[in-house]
Amino acid sequence: MLKVDKDEFEAQLVKIGEKKLEKFSITNKEYAEKIVSNLDGAVWKVLKIEKKESKRQPLAPFTTSTLQQTAWSWFGYGAKQTMMLAQQLYETGLITYMRTDSLNVSQEALAVAAEKIKNDFGNNYLATAPRIYKTRSKTAQEAHEAVRPTNPESNPEEFQTKLTAQQFKLYDLIWRRFIASQMAGAIFEATGADISAANDYIFRATGNVLKFDGFLKVYRQKLSENLLPILKENEALELRELKSAQHFTEPPPYYNEASLIKALEEYGIGRPSTYAPTMVTIQLRRYVIKDEQKRLKPTDIGILVNDVLVKHFPEIVDLEFTARMEENLDKIAEGEKQWQPVIKEFWIPFKNNLDKKSMELSKEKLAVEKTELKCPKCGKDLVIRMGRYGKFYACSGFPGCKHTAPLESSNGTAENADLGPCPKCPDGKIVKRRTKKGRFFWGCSVWPKCDYATWENPAKNKPEEDA
Fold first, then answer.
1. pLDDT digits (tens, 9 = 90+) for 389-399
2. SS3 for 182?
3. What would the CATH number be for the domain defined by 257-363?
4. CB contact at 8 A, 243 and 261
5. How far apart are CA 379 and CA 396, in angstroms?
6. Which are the catalytic amino acids?
7. Domain boundaries, the chain
8. pTM here?
């Protein structure tokens, strides 16, 4: 943090001597602290100032995937929820068909949008010519228009009382994105200042000043509008704080629904109609679960399924194969290819491999881990197996012995004496159980003979014993 007069601003280290620094150039804490030490008592001054005008152009109207991504980013709507709301807006005649990867817009709609922009905001807010957007996807189907309002001349507020709060949010978003797509670009003055310290160290401060809002008047995007104070070359600066923040290499974050849909589109996997069902299916089957940041974290069963598919069916899960098959299906739909040869080329080798692998996998004990625990029923070794809802203890004598227990238990038994006796029957104890959907609860150990169950841990409210 640097200061000039009464104004403070931030700058980042970008160069040491002749070496330009990348994001991960400072690889450890010791290196970062050494730099801080070398800058102790340094003289800071402005080395060079650059100013240039920059423009930001509006985004294209929505396709299915970009609508799902933006609704997630702005409102936290999942893909399924977004498509349900869009379906309702379509059925009431407020938007065009919502399952599309086309950016086409009718000439009539373009003319209406242009007139709306001139009347509401003035000629300087209208693009100099109608903006025509082209999709970058090789497999895009151009039969439909982009997702847009059917009545762009009407303000969204006119329909607010007829819509639920969620419907209105999505409609307002679609309307604003479409109108903005035909507006003039936003103009910024971009300023960059190089700052020297101790001769060898160059820091960089950047900032933007919005000079003309253009399409941003209607559709606000996330912008970095850091404001810099007025600086002069060779001007002395005061150091207020020097932080040794470093960027160490980290694995890429898990996908969320929006980023996964974006990746599917980039790889040419699926269609606008399949994005939302895909998000639902992988969660219903518990291949992934959402963490606290709503990112899709692979589960044990998801990792196992993936490993099996990659090992035994590598051609089917190959990204190029999937995209190529999508392309062939498009050509069949357009009459450019016959379906029989395409399906035959895929099906015969796949069926042969499927039959072969089915026999191999039936003999293979998947995801079995040995333990040193013994089965409390028959005395044989306990193993850890993989089930639909994750790992669990099971007797190695299965199917002769069908004993199982949650992996959370410390001794491989279904009972936990610390939770006490069952309050409903004389024979059972309270144990931790799991529903078919994977949710935990506490119930009687002799179920189904006794049906006692509670969602709250009874031990939480257990009264303290008298001293």
1. 667 788 888 88
2. coil
3. 1.10.460.10
4. no
5. 10
6. 97
7. 2-57+185-239, 64-178, 257-363, 369-461
8. 0.66
